[in-house]
Amino acid sequence: MLVIDKYAYQNKIVHWSPVLKGWLWLLGMVLAFQPLIWLKVLLLIGVISATLYVTGVGLHQYLRWYYGILPFLLLSILGIILTVGPTRQALYWSIPVFGQYFGVSKAMLPQGLTIGLRALSAITCTYFLALTTPFQQIVYLLVKLHLPRLLIEETMLMYRFIFIFIAAWEQIYHAQQLRFGYRNFHTSIHSLSLLIKLLFEQIIYNYREMDNALAVKLYHGEFPINDKRTERQ
Fold first, then answer.
1. Integer Cα distance of 97 and 203 in angstroms
2. Tens digits of residue pLDDT in 80-121
C-alpha cells in the first residue's frame, strides 16, 4: 500500500461523504484561482493545517511529497519571469548577452509569483482530497459525475497497476542493493537498465495474469461498480 493511500484509509474523516469532500475540494480550487493573494495564502495555511490534523501525518513527511512537484513548478515560474530585452530598465539582475540583456522581468515577476502561488494552492487542495478520500470513494464520485464508464474503468486499472509497478520496483531495487548493484557509476547504469527491463517484463506478466483471471470469471467487458457499497467504504 502506498503511504498516501494508507492515510486515505486511516484518517479522521474517512467516513465523511465523498460528495462532501468533493465539494470541499472544488471550493478550495475556486479559492485557489481567485485573484486575491492574501486569500490564497490563508487557503494554503488552512488546508495544510487541516490536512496535518485529520491525517496525523508529520510535517516533514508531508513536505517530502512536494519534492517531486516543486522542480516543475519552479521551472514554470522561471519560464514566465525570465526574459531578454534591449535595455536594463525593465529587468532585475540583468546581464548582457549578445547585445541584449537577460534577467528577471519587472512586469512579469508579480504575475509569475501569483501563478506559482495559485498552482501551489491547487496542489495543496488536491493533496487534501487524496489523503482523506479512499479510492473507492473517488470511484463513487466519478460515477456520480456521470463520467464515461470507460474512463472510470481505466482509472481503476491504472490505480491497480501503480501498486504492481511500485511493489515490483521495490523488490528488484532492494535485491540489487543487497548485491552492491549501485556501488559505483558503471554498476549503477547496468543495474538501472536491468531494473527497467525486469519491470517491463513484470508488468506484462501481471497483465497476462489479470487477463486470465478475468477470463475465468467470465468477464464481459465491464467492471461491476456498486454505488451504495462504494459510498459507505
1. 49
2. 888 888 888 888 888 888 888 888 888 888 999 999 999 999
Answer yes or no: is pLDDT of 50 > 70: yes
Confidence of residue 47 (pLDDT cuts 50, 70, 90): very high
